[in-house]
């Protein structure tokens, strides 16, 4: 077995740009609509799907080793994820062509630590895996095109014997 160990990075807009958009609470003090009751930044990010109909769901993840041997992607939708009850780590990697077939380029995998004050929008076609919680149980909001979990899910295993491990 070969283990590739990667260190989780803090989520930044610049660091996450190859995979999509990072959404963070603004700290610039310039909301589009400041009032005495609230500050409003209405368009921190946009996301799209081919059908135009999104679903919003909640997933609860249970603490497990920070390892993966699989990756997934979606062709017809971007995916929005934000943790509600604790921080998470998510791994991402680009695509590569091997013998004429798409495969996750796991040797270029990156991991990001995402807090309850942050979110990500994963671009179409970007390889990623399910969030890994830092606490015993963490729930997230996940939104993508309606029925993506049934109609637009490409899961691939890493090569036999290959494991990616994340450290904090």
UniProtKB/TrEMBL annotation:
The entry's keywords: Lyase, Purine metabolism
Catalyzed reaction equations: (S)-ureidoglycolate = urea + glyoxylate
ATP-binding as UniProt keyword: no
Source species taxonomy: Bacteria, Bacillati, Bacillota, Clostridia, Lachnospirales
Keyword Lyase: yes
GO molecular function, one term: ureidoglycolate lyase activity
Name recorded for this polypeptide: Ureidoglycolate hydrolase
Biological process according to GO: allantoin catabolic process; purine nucleobase metabolic process
Subunit structure: Homodimer.
UniProt organism field: Enterocloster bolteae 90A9
InterPro entries to which the protein is assigned, alphabetical: RmlC_Cupin_sf (IPR011051), Ureidogly_lyase (IPR007247), Ureidoglycolate_lyase_dom_sf (IPR024060)
Top-level taxon: Bacteria
Matching Gene3D superfamilies: Ureidoglycolate hydrolase
